[in-house]
Specification:
Length: 227
């Protein structure tokens, strides 16, 4: 194929890619925000890499990095949620836990207008004998619930609160928020373990397109944060 004939093909490819990105951005803008709640996990610096979706170690510089979450298995969209992405922002309001206890979180968000994108990589099971009280408190369907990674949560609010109200919506994993949530202290409250020997970012097994085929791995269940 000559250079002249290759040019139109390349142009068509670039236009198609641009159209896909534009469609994704428009879809996220059209998607209404929904109300939810979020706890966090990952204080040990490693449990985010042992999620039920079976991705194993995740590279901080691949996909959404360590901005990941475990979805409650009582959420209506839990089935086939592995590898999908959600835009999340902190919501200042009163809300209840699964036992009906009221929680006041009206002034704790760093910036209610700032958001981040998380990939679903794990499950927060409603029934988990090893952590029965906490899992039943958060993950049994009284309210849409995400267990955010520690790195995600501390971009939205101080971890000492343990749980916050959130607004969320489905977005492509490549989506970039208009105003990105950032850790205001520019430091992490816990360390992280080193990658496996010989690791490369290209080894990361997460899908990067939220609307590609869902991951087929079986799920291993784990406990929610003991809040």
């Amino acid at each position: 194929m000559s250079r002249a004939s290759k040019a139109p093909v390349l142009l068509v490819g670039l236009l198609a890619l641009w159209a896909c990105e534009l469609t994704g951005a428009q879809r996220s803008k059209e998607e209404p925000w929904k109300l939810g709640r979020a706890t966090f996990y990952g204080k040990d610096g490693w449990s985010i890499h042992t999620g039920s979706c079976g991705y194993g170690y995740m590279d901080e510089n691949a996909g959404t990095g360590w901005d990941v979450a475990a979805a409650s298995d009582s959420n209506k969209d839990w089935k086939d949620s592995c590898g999908t992405c959600k835009e999340v922002r902190c919501k200042e309001m009163w809300f209840k836990d699964g036992y009906g206890q009221k929680l006041e979180r009206e002034t704790i968000c760093y910036d209610p207008a700032a958001s981040l994108v998380v990939t679903i990589t794990d499950t927060c099971p409603c029934i988990y004998p090893g952590n029965y009280y906490s899992n039943k408190r958060w993950c049994c369907g009284d309210m849409y619930h995400l267990d955010l990674s520690l790195w995600s949560f501390e971009k939205l609010a101080d971890t000492r609160y343990g749980v916050i109200a959130i607004e969320w919506r489905d977005v492509p994993c490549s989506y970039r928020p208009v105003k990105r949530a950032k850790n205001p202290f520019n430091r992490r409250s816990t360390g992280e373990r080193s990658a496996p020997r010989g690791w490369r970012a290209s080894f990361d097994r997460r899908p990067y397109n939220a609307y590609s085929e869902p991951a087929a791995q079986g799920r291993r269940l784990r406990g929610a944060a003991s809040v």
